[in-house]
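Bug #77: duplicate submission created two jobs. Keeping one. Sequence:
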Amino acid sequence: MDIIISNASDKPIYEQIVSQMKDMILSGELEEGSMLPSIRNLASDLRISVITTKRAYQELESQGFIETVQGKGSFVAGGNMELLREERLRHVEELLERAVHEAKGAGIGTQELHDMLDLMAGD
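Kept job's structure:
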């Protein structure tokens, strides 16, 4: 599992882990039922505190991305990918709303905004 921690990021380390693991789950890189590294192993691999890793796992579990089975470990949760995808869609909509607001303030028209998005998306 490739998780990259950036000390230059304004996001706390546990949030960086949560964000990257969510992306891996939603992209299918981490499949439903996949076993995750133990909290201690991940902390050791990333050279961070066990407490930080535990907080990331707790956050992922509270959001429904992973399940922890006492004595067995943590696994990618199943059955609620559609709900998780909805969460991501809402976030993208919020970002687009901000972009539209900024574009209007800069005098950028709808067609020009579409062209910019098409260019950025590679279409």
